[in-house]
Amino acid sequence: MTDLLNSPLAGALWTCLALAIAASALSMTVTQTELFAPLRGLAWKVHPQVGHLFQCFYCFSHWVVIAGTLVYRPVVIASGWAPVDWLVATFFTIALTAMFCGLLFKVFLTAMAKAVSERELKKLFAGE
Q1: Which ranges does the record mark as transmembrane (predicted)?
Q2: For site-directed labelling of 77, which of 44, 48, 61, 126 has its Cα 20 to 30 A away?
Q3: Concatenated DSSP letters for the chain?
């Protein structure tokens, strides 16, 4: 069992998982929070496609994962041909990232709905 946990495959899977979690967090933060609104505005001025990239967490996450897999180079399936190995690891990580982004977005929507409800209740009670 310890051989499996110390194998190159386990290391590659851990790398892909860590990259997916980091990419989803970064993508949601850049594309959805007010902190990065000025950056998103600047991106729209550069080009509409660049602006869209900075508005779409799914799109943005692809580029984050591509950068991460180029740096860390996980090999999920070893074909003996590095470009194919990189492509498989990249899209495997993108699939994981999409799942984590979905979870984070669901939490984000729930938090926003709660904030809107609280604001409406305060207005309602303040008016009475």
Answers
A1: 12-31, 52-72, 84-109
A2: 61
A3: -HHHHTSHHHHHHHHHHHHHHHHHHHHHHHHHSGGGHHHHHHHHHH-HHHHHHTT-HHHHHHHHHHHHHHHH---SS--S-HHHHHHHHHHHHHHHHHHHHHHHHHHHHHHHHHHHHHHHHHHHHHH-
